[in-house]
Amino acid sequence: MADNIDRSGTPLVEMRDICVSFGGIHAVDHVSVDLYPGEVVGLLGHNGAGKSTLIKVLSGAYQADSGDIYVDGERATIANPRDARKYNIETIYQTLALADNLDASSNLFLGREITTPLGFVNDAAMEAETRKIMGRLNPNFRKFADPVSALSGGQRQSVAIARAVYFNARILIMDEPTAALGPQETKMVAELIQELRKDGIGIFLISHDIHDVMDLCDRVSVMKNGELVGTELVGDVTDDDILGMIILGKKPARAA
Amino acid sequence: MTDTSSSPSPSAGGTGSDARPGATPTKRGLFSQLELDARLLGMVGAFVLVCIAFNVVTGGQFLTPRNIFNLTIQTVSVAIMATGMVFVIVTRHIDLSVGSLLATCSAVMAMTQTLVTPEWLGLGLNHPLTAPITIVVGIAAGLLIGAFHGWLVGYLSIPAFIVTLGGLLVWRNVAWYLTNGQTIGPLDSTFLKLGGIGGTLGETWSWIVGIIAVLATLFALWQARRAKIAHDFPVKPVWAEVLMGVVFTGMILAFVAILNAYQVPSRRLERAFEAQGLTMPEGYTAGYGMPISVLVLIAVAVVMTLIARRTRLGRYIFATGGNPDAAELSGINTRLLTVKVFAIMGVLCALAGMVASARLSFHSNDIGTLDELRVIAAAVIGGTALSGGIGTIYGAILGALIMQSLQSGMAMVGVDAPLQNIVVGAVLVFAVLIDIIYRKRLGAK
Fold first, then answer.
1. How would you write the pLDDT of chain B (445 residues) with one tens digit per residue?
2. Which chain A residues touch B305 with a CB distance below 8 Å?
3. Which domain holds residue B417?
């Protein structure tokens, strides 16, 4: 993949020297990553390597023990998911984080409902907006009145994606977005990622799948045992290099 | 027999061999066109069945205006609390303390109107300000205690079962201390009007209230349809809307007519005329009409339904019940939400305590005993799922009505008291079993 991202300016988001520990275990150990506008950065690593924990610090689900987050070069305080949303950081969680008993539009607008002048929730307006965005993301989506528990895996995924995209995200975190999807739907997600990066959105993509990452990402950061092994341009490394980083924690040998 | 799951009606058989049933319905059932909830229909059906059965067994005694009036005012207290229990259970909590909390609120109100306002504030007995002050104090007590429970559950992470099990013992006996274990009465004359038979609207005002209710219902139906059309959503056929309107109108007006048909005994009317220095005209009659306590319940039901369906608070309550983690990740403050839910429950306990003590015309030590179980049973019979996320306000009220009908019907038939409780307990378990089977059939989890 041709690398045409301008990395001379200020990064969209920068996480510096982040540490998170749970009862003496260093889940994230002095990790720094950054992300530029229009860029897709893959986060790779085994289960328990700390990638989800690192990213949950950015989305406000966890608090870092030390380290700083900078958004547009300014120091950002993210104490909870509401703060993250204020910085236009949106997350698609691996579990999707949908309330199964509510319908698609209630989930899409959860925490950010459209209200009438009297302060009541405006279901009709929210459903109309949901129809609009789903028409773009997943034109086959029809089940607007059913609770999301009645939807298929792909349909649920598209609700979760719609929720992240609808509110003008600038920084998008995708935690295993294709893990539960079939080939058709995976392709849809890939196309969506290309579309979003054109709009200048920065994306963190967490994945197990090296091929996903090689196809979709500009750079890749590999973690092992809570530490950052390294960050490489995808164009500079081979699959084997990345496998070596994931399994052995070994940086690829450079020519010259 | 592989393709029978979708359409049970054999009449749809001739609509072309490739037509997939359910995809583009050519002939839908009556109920699906009306968009009625099958569970609601089931509950209404069960309620009607219970009423008819008791009416037959008692030889027409059960469905008299007098008994329907009594049934209504007996249900109010539990029904008010059951609407709050829906929120508590929907958020995956439980409140075992409502009966005791009712007693404490009732005790606070009893002491306010018999000691604080007449003596400490020097207002004397039956002052017009006594009832408003009493009610405000009672509701404040319920609100504070409920919010305290919510804080223990939400912020200190003590399970609601434990907090309210403790509350069950604590508040029952706080009520005891507040009143020194005595029965407190007589209560303020204005306050007593909130209890039921002592305070009714009379025939004219009952009709006015009934007509306002009809207009509000029709307006709500029209408004909902208009909002759907404005956004190009599919709407029901016009005849279905009209039929719904006619059914609701008929039910409301029939209810008012029945309450109005319950005649005030002529001796009582005579005394009322004598009290004003008049003599009663020959052949004068008057119906009781709508009890004020029922108005309170209707107001509670409307407000709680609005909260559940039309406010962010309601949306968050159901979202948290459906998936607490998702709610938290969506930026909902679930701890504060727990405080709010229990605070609402506390306020409703105070309102229920107001109605219950006014109906008895005194505060007694055992007021509201075992109400927690009736309230939970009403909510659960009304379709509230203990696993959280599912429940309706009207369901809980209907559940309370079904329970009360069973209880008072059996009392009329002369069933022994122990057997009454055995039946009610069995019905509770059976109702939940039916609900589980129904949900499995629907394929919902």
1. 333 333 333 333 333 333 333 334 444 566 666 666 777 888 889 899 999 999 999 988 899 999 999 999 999 999 999 999 999 999 999 999 999 999 999 999 999 999 988 888 888 888 889 999 999 999 999 999 999 999 999 999 999 999 999 999 999 999 999 999 999 988 988 999 998 787 888 888 999 999 999 999 999 889 888 888 887 777 888 888 888 899 999 999 999 999 998 888 888 888 888 888 887 787 788 888 889 999 999 999 999 999 999 999 999 999 999 999 999 999 899 999 999 999 999 999 999 999 999 999 999 999 999 899 999 999 999 989 888 889 999 999 999 999 999 988 999 888 888 898 898 889 889 888 887 888 787 755 4
2. none
3. 38-197+292-438
Q: What ranges make up the beta strands (E) of chain A?
A: 13-22, 25-35, 40-44, 66-71, 74-76, 89-92, 171-175, 202-206, 219-224, 227-233
A97 vs B contacts (CB less than 8 Å): 323, 325-326, 329-330
A33 contact partners, CB below 8 Å, separation of at least 6 = A14, A15, A41, A43, A54, A204, A221, A228, A231
Best B20, B229, B317, B323 member to test A by mutation, with max A CBs in 10 Å, is B323
Place of tokens 């052949």: B283
Domain boundary among B252, B269, B290: B290
Suggest the residue from B32, B231, B332, B387 to mutate for an interface test with chain A (most A CBs closer than 10 A): B231
Pairwise CB contact (< 8 Å): B318 & A99? yes
Token digits of residue A125 = 């307006």
* Predicted interface score ipTM higher than 0.90: no
B213 and B270 in one domain? yes
Does residue B335 lie within any of the structural domains? yes
Same-domain check for residues B380 and B398 = yes
Is the same domain home to B206 and B227?
yes
- Whether B135 and B261 share a structural domain: no
Domain ranges of chain A: 1-88+171-256, 101-167
Strands A40-44 and A219-224, sheet pairing: parallel
Report the chain A residue with the minimal C-alpha distance to residue B225. Answer: A124
What class has domain A1-88+171-256?
alpha beta
